[in-house]
């Protein structure tokens, strides 16, 4: 029983890191058939760590992989193609109204 408890305690944090997170955005720009988002980064936030999820005419931007770098938090712009976009659409992410 003791070993099972240790296994669960050590496994839970690893599972929690792999869950996608709806990203808070610090800015949004629509550019032709692209969307640019401003997100918090610790130095390793790149496009490949995010995914655009479409449902009807709603868009949710999720962070699939955490930014585990140890740089001082700062804001970066990332740009994504809107291949599957149906205009108009509603962005479901929370918008943060202040800078770091």
- Point out poorly predicted stretches: 3-9
Largest sheet: 4 strands, mixed
Specify the structural class. alpha+beta
Determine the fraction of residues in helical runs and give it as a percent range.
10-25%
User: Tally the helices: what do you get?
Assistant: 1
Terminal CA distance: 45 Å
- What proportion strand? 35-45%
Helix/strand order? HEEEEEEE
What gyration radius follows from the Cα positions, in whole Å? 17 Å
Number of strands: 7
The average pLDDT is 86
Shape: globular
Characterization of this structure:
It is a single chain. The chain has 100 residues and is α+β, with helices and mostly antiparallel strands. The chain has 1 helix and 7 strands. The protein is globular, with a radius of gyration of 17 Å.
SSE order and pairing:
Elements: H1 2-17, E1 21-22, E2 27-31, E3 34-41, E4 50-55, E5 58-63, E6 74-81, E7 90-91
Parallel strand pairs: 5-7
Antiparallel strand pairs: 1-5, 2-3, 3-6, 4-5
Q: Which short descriptors sum up this protein?
A:
alpha+beta, disordered N terminus, 100 residues, 7 strands, three-stranded antiparallel β-sheet
Short description:
The chain has 100 residues and is of the alpha+beta class.
């Amino acid at each position: 029983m003791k070993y099972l408890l240790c296994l669960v305690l050590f496994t839970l944090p690893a599972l929690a890191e792999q869950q996608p997170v709806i990203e808070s955005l610090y800015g949004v720009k629509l550019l032709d058939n692209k969307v640019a988002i401003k997100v918090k980064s610790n130095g390793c936030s790149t496009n490949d760590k995010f995914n655009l999820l479409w449902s009807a005419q709603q868009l949710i931007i999720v962070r699939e992989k955490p930014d585990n770098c140890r740089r001082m938090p700062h804001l970066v712009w990332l740009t994504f193609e809107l291949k599957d976009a149906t205009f108009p659409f509603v962005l479901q992410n929370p918008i943060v109204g202040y800078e770091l």
